[in-house]
Amino acid sequence: MTGLAIIDVARDGIFVFLKVAGPIMLVALVVGLAISLLQALTQIQEQTLIYVPKIVAVFATLLFMLPFMGDALGSYMTRIAARIVSGG
């Protein structure tokens, strides 16, 4: 396996990782920002207030995005398996 092929596999893996984890992290960021803004505007300084909405939003996003995530990971594994079978 050449260095260029290794870089290609690594680049493809990073893109798949960003496609799979990106939407979940973006939802967690937006929900955290909204709750923090709400806390700042109302001066409620409860530290545990942020966790429940964020957990619910991330869980709902996981349920909604699961087919997309499975397809992205499955196609990546198919490409990797094809490279293994072809010998490089």
Task: Produce a short descriptive summary.
The chain has 88 residues and is mostly helical. The chain is built from two helices and no strands.
Descriptors for this entry?
88 residues; mainly alpha; 2 helices; elongated
Description:
The protein is an all-alpha fold and 88 residues long. The protein has one domain. Helix content is 86%, strand content 0%. It has two helices and no strands. The longest helix is centred in the N-terminal third of the chain and has 40 residues, at 3-42. It starts with a helix and ends with a helix.
Which regions have little confidence, pLDDT < 50, spanning 5+ residues? none
Overall shape: elongated
Number of domains: 1
Largest sheet: none
Order of helices and strands: HH
Rg, rounded, reads 19 Å
Helix content, binned percent = over 70%
Tell me the strand percentage band: under 5%
Structural class, by secondary structure, is: mainly alpha
Number of strands: 0
Q: What's the N-to-C terminus distance? A: 5 Å
Task: Report the total helices.
Answer: 2
Mean pLDDT score: 91
Transmembrane segments: 20-41, 48-69
GO biological process, one term: protein secretion
Protein name: Flagellar biosynthetic protein FliQ
InterPro entries: Bac_export_3 (IPR002191), FliQ (IPR006305)
Write the layout of secondary structure elements.
Blueprint lengths: L2 H40 L8 H36 L2
